[in-house]
Amino acid sequence: MGFKKRGVSGRTKVAIMKALKKGPRGKRDLFSRVRARNPKATNAKIARGLGKLLDSGHVGQQGQRQHARFYRIED
Question: Residue 24 in contact with residue 66, Cβ under 8 Å?
Fold first, then answer.
C-alpha cells in the first residue's frame, strides 16, 4: 500500500501563486509570505502545494528561479 496522494487547499494554492508572483524581497522568503496570506498553512502543506504546482507545469521557470535561493530548485 502506497501513500494516498494528498490534495492542497485552494487558499494555500492561491497564497503560493501570489507569493511566487511577488518574487523575493530580502529576508521575507516564500514560506513566510504564504503564511502571511494564509496563517493555517504549515511548512509541509506549502511544500506539498509548491511541489504539485511545479510538477503540473503551472508555475513557470521564472517563478522558480526567483525563489531558488529559498528552496533549491535545479534548472
Answer: yes
pLDDT by residue (tens digit) across 7-60? 888 888 888 888 877 766 666 778 888 888 889 888 888 888 887 777 776 555
Interhelix angle for 10-22 vs 30-37, to 10°? 130
Which residue ranges make up each domain of the chain? 10-66
Q: How far apart are CA 45 and CA 6, in angstroms?
A: 10
Neighbours of 15 (CB within 10 A): 23
Which residue is associated with the grid cell 511548512?
43
Dist CA 46 CA 23 (whole Å): 16
Separation between Cα atoms, residue 35 and residue 4, nearest integer Å: 25
pTM of the model: 0.61
Say if residues 38 and 15 touch (Cβ distance below 8 Å).
Answer: yes
